Amino acid sequence: MDWGLKNRLARIINPINGRAVMLAVDHGYFLGPTESLEVPHLTVKPLLKYCDSLMLTRGVLRTSVDANFPVPIVLRVSGGSSIIGEDLSNEKITTSVKEAIRLNASALAMSIFVGAKYEHNSLVNLGNLVNDAEEFGIPVLAVTAVGKELKKRDTRYLSLSCRIAAEFGAHMVKTYYCENFEKVVNTCPVPVIIAGGPKLEERQALELTYNAIKSGASGVDMGRNIWQSKYPVPMIRAVRAIVHENSNVAKAYDLFKKLCNEKPTKPKKLIQPKIQTK
Ligand code: 5RP
Predict the structure, then answer these.
(1) φ, ψ at 220 (rounded to 5°)
(2) CATH class, range 3-198
(3) How far away, in angstroms, is 69 Cα from ligand 1 center?
(4) How far is the centre of ligand 1, averaged over its atoms, from the C-alpha of 14 (Å)?
(5) Cβ(19) to ligand 1 under 6 A?
(6) Which among 92, 164, 212, 263 counts the fewest CB atoms within 10 Å?
(7) Is the pLDDT of residue 52 over 80?
(8) What are the CA-CA distances from residue 173 to residues 40, 68, 77, 124, 228 (Å)?
(9) CA distance to 32, 125, 269, per residue, from 21 (Å)
(10) Domain spans of the chain?
(11) Ligand 1 pocket, residue 91 CB under 6 Å
């Protein structure tokens, strides 16, 4: 593997234990001001030092993340549809590789929509993005999206999507946890990372994390189950304990409760800063 690509991948997935805690805050690219992510810098700032990498769009990166903080960036480069639009699967590549290099991205992320109306376009987008990104040694994370019309999150569907993403050259795949997740991981020749999905009770989200790791996932790219928690910092630290320290659910949940009692971490003031971007 190309040195630069391998080095960038090592910023995302720790080469010592093969694990990753990615913090996903890209939701606004199709959901707008999602609950608890209304003012991105307030959500992101307290969590930054606990994630291995940050997944987001260029707009939120430029305006809401301190460039002096050395967090590796996984830049979402696909989009083009919104939650109120006609078809969520109708995405294109919206951010160039040149821009990703300017922003010092360690990896690029885009969604594929297997089985949806625009399946073909999204897969061709993935192939083309891998071609362009590999030219500069940048790895690509494929996100197996399950849009409004794609409610299937079973083993068969997710194995199919993950495998196709890897066949098109994705260097990592992000998907959802499902029953028999070992099959999804074992039939995908690149690292598989799970999204958290909609908000669950904290203990359930830790169970999800634990089960995914036990089934062979390389880590999490988690959003809502961290920053929609009343206690985001304790939550990300508990998730980290499972991913990086092999904690079981009981131990991670105890850590969560202990940290919750230390001090409140949820920011209260909602003020949008006006940061100069250019
Ligand atoms: C949407 C995404 C999100 O980043 C992903 O869903 C992760 O966030 P969450 O843990 O909230 O599901 O890629 O396509």
Answers:
(1) -125, 150
(2) alpha beta
(3) 23
(4) 21
(5) no
(6) 263
(7) yes
(8) 25, 28, 15, 16, 24
(9) 24, 26, 27
(10) 3-198
(11) no
